[in-house]
Design goal:
By secondary structure, the protein is α/β, with parallel strands linked by helices. 21% of the residues lie in helices and 23% in strands. The chain has helices at 16-19, 25-28, 68-73, 82-89, 107-110, 136-143, 155-164, 232-248; strands at 3-8, 12-15, 39-42, 45-50, 55-58, 99-101, 131-135, 167-170, 183-188, 195-200, 207-209, 252-254, 263-268, 274-280. The chain has a 6-stranded mixed beta sheet. This is MBL fold metallo-hydrolase.
């Protein structure tokens, strides 16, 4: 049996204009209100997939590895490692996780692999028994980043992952030897090269963790992209193909950055605009 549970991690406040790319504020503020510093609330949601003999965690959020000054710079709201608290609420610790899937290696998706910041202490990798699964092209991007996104990666984390001996890198179109044939990975290059989007087979239709291809419900609308996306036009084409595929298969999306919507089923209205039905704020023990 397989169940799905969404887990909140540390939250952020980031500039709304950056998060909505070339969409005007008059449009995006209908969906997400901005504070006095023009920032919107964002989550860093992970997905726990519990199977008969293992626990799989999709992403770890931003975590609490930043020093206090960097935490303030990047709008991280909590000093504690919220994801660890969320795991504990379900009777688990990081040591109980068997596999961690990372859509990509930007710090707001992989930073939760590290222990909380402590003055004078080096970075420390959590999840001591887990294998770490990510895309090979994303790994190559992370270890030799472009100037535009160099600050999005954590060099110390990359060193720790490589030294762990538990890193599995997936080539495009390749399944995971660790996870098995029941797991499918979609490839997306629009946000960052080689992002992998895991699809989990469920009785009620596939569930896809949308990563930064579709970070939240407002971004389901095809023209909406982020200023952080490397190739926005290509991203829109990827999003179109993915939504069409999921709609045909009664699929659902899990959102990592939406503070209000954890999951929704893909829909399309009479005018051809994609949206969501059956949206929910949290998922606990979903088995269908």
């Amino acid at each position: 049996m397989r169940t799905l549970t969404t887990l909140p991690g540390n939250s952020q406040k980031l500039d709304g204009g950056a998060m909505f790319g070339n969409a005007p504020r008059a449009l995006w503020e209908r969906w997400m209100a901005a504070d006095a510093l023009h920032r919107i609330d964002l989550g860093c949601r992970a997905l726990l997939v519990r199977e008969d003999e293992r626990n799989v965690l999709i992403e770890t959020g931003i975590g609490a590895f930043f020093s206090p000054e960097l935490r303030e710079r990047y709008g991280v709201q909590e000093s504690r490692h919220v994801l660890l608290d969320s795991l504990a609420a379900h009777g688990l610790s990081d040591a109980d996780i068997d596999v961690v899937v990372l859509t990509h290696l930007h710090f707001d998706h992989a930073g939760g692999l590290l222990a909380s910041w402590a003055a004078g202490q080096p970075a420390r990798l959590l999840f001591p028994h887990a294998r770490f699964v990510t895309g090979r092209r994303q790994w190559q991007r992370a270890i030799a980043p472009h100037a535009r996104d160099r600050a999005s990666y954590i060099p110390e984390l990359l060193e720790l992952l490589e030294a762990s001996g538990r890193l599995e890198l997936l080539d495009d179109g390749q399944g995971s030897a660790t996870l098995g044939a029941d797991w499918r990975f979609h490839i997306s290059d629009g946000h960052t090269p080689g992002q992998i989007l895991p699809e989990v087979a469920m009785p009620g239709g596939p569930v896809l963790f949308a990563g930064d291809l579709i970070p939240g419900a407002p971004w389901v609308h095809l023209p909406i992209t982020m200023g952080y996306d490397r190739f926005p036009e290509g991203l829109i084409e990827e999003k179109t193909a993915l939504l069409e595929d999921l709609l045909a298969r009664n699929g659902r999306l899990v959102f990592t950055h939406d503070p209000q919507v954890a999951m929704g089923r893909v829909s399309r209205d009479a005018k051809g605009k994609y949206g969501l039905s059956e949206s929910c704020a949290a998922v606990v023990g979903l088995a269908e």
